[in-house]
Design a protein that fits this description.
The chain contains 4 helices and 11 strands; from the N terminus they run αββαβααββββββββ. The protein has 215 residues and is α+β, with helices and mostly antiparallel strands.
């Protein structure tokens, strides 16, 4: 049973060594697309050492081409030290926004930078979106697996830190759903701090509520 589940998980997850691999989320039968990459060691050392209160955090709707300027302001307001590594973070998040917007053919994105120090979304679930890109810049990556029984997956994979993962949501126009679920790893009590970039396509920014909006 576990062997069959692992094979099915491998079958519906596309793993690539370059950014073009994220577009495979559009292939029939694909539930997840992972760009398998490793962050530069000096960048990872820097971001892992930052005090949590200096990590950038925000929730905003904007055009992909506005992400870079917006994140510069976010980093300044959060007290993220100005240095080459901060520029790497901003440039990488901006590039992922452009790639994901092209894959999803959308003019606007909702961008979230979340700083997580407890158990957030620790239950396996599917997001109520068309698709979502998640990249963990600091801490343990997103966990995912297959289950159609309503129980937690028996085979669970963890996205590497720094590796962008695109997951189909409940609004993806394909039936039946694959049964691929994901969660944030439970970290309560460990002292771990995670920094996540989350990108969602937005069809009509005027109808969205809550986050700020940059035209």
């Amino acid at each position: 049973m576990i062997v069959d589940e692992a094979k099915e998980l491998e079958h519906c997850t596309q793993v690539a060594s370059g950014p073009e691999g994220l577009a495979t989320i559009r292939k029939p039968g694909t539930a997840a697309a992972l760009w398998e990459r490793s962050p530069l060691s000096r960048f990872q050392t820097w971001i892992d050492a930052l005090p949590p209160e200096q990590l950038p955090r925000e929730r905003i709707i904007l055009r992909p081409e506005a992400v870079c300027d917006a994140l510069i302001e976010v980093a300044r307001s959060c007290g993220t030290p100005e240095c080459p590594e901060r520029n790497m973070l901003i440039e990488d998040a901006s590039a992922l926004a452009a790639i994901f917007a092209d894959v999803m053919d959308c003019a606007y994105l909702q961008l979230r930078l979340d700083v997580i120090q407890t158990n957030a979304c620790r239950k396996f679930h599917i997001d109520a979106v068309t698709a979502r890109l998640i990249c963990t810049y600091r801490g343990t990556g997103t966990q995912y697996g297959l289950s159609t029984s309503g129980k937690d997956p028996e085979t669970v994979l963890t996205a590497p830190t720094g590796a962008p993962l695109v997951l189909r949501g409940t609004r993806w126009p394909e039936n039946p759903p694959s049964g691929l679920l994901h969660r944030s790893p439970p970290i309560a009590g460990t002292g771990e701090t995670r920094l996540l970039l989350v990108l969602d396509p937005v069809e009509d920014p005027e109808k969205e509520r809550g986050p700020a909006y940059i035209p």
